Amino acid sequence: MNVNGYACSIEMYFGVDVLKKDNQLIPIQWKGFDDKEKKYQGEIAEKQLVQDAFRNKLKSELMSELTELNQLLNEIFNAFK
After folding, report:
1. Is 23's pLDDT higher than 90?
2. Average pLDDT in the 1-24 region?
3. Contact, 47 vs 11, CB < 8 A?
């Protein structure tokens, strides 16, 4: 499912490399229905696994780009300029 336009946890921006387990994307759990938006908010199913993988990615000498996370943070910071 394309999650664009839905509220998701920040882990979704850690990079596709940490969002996989056994070479498959970890599913999103839809919960927290927003009555105003008429949409659910998503959370990564294995949040701790993804967070641990991200921490290992940050410590790694082979760390890949953090394009998605950089874009998200730039949007947040630019909103307050």
Report:
1. yes
2. 80
3. yes
Residue-by-residue DSSP string for 43-68? EETTHHHHHHHHHHHHH-TT----HH
Percentages of the chain per state (helix, strand, coil), in multiples of 5: 40, 20, 35
Residue in 64, 47, 60 with CA at minimum distance from that of residue 10: 47
Cα separations in angstroms, 76 against 29, 52, 73: 24, 24, 5
pTM given for the model: 0.70
List the chain domain ranges: 10-79
State the Cα–Cα distance between residues 76 and 53, nearest whole angstrom. Answer: 24
Give me 71's structure tokens: 């874009």
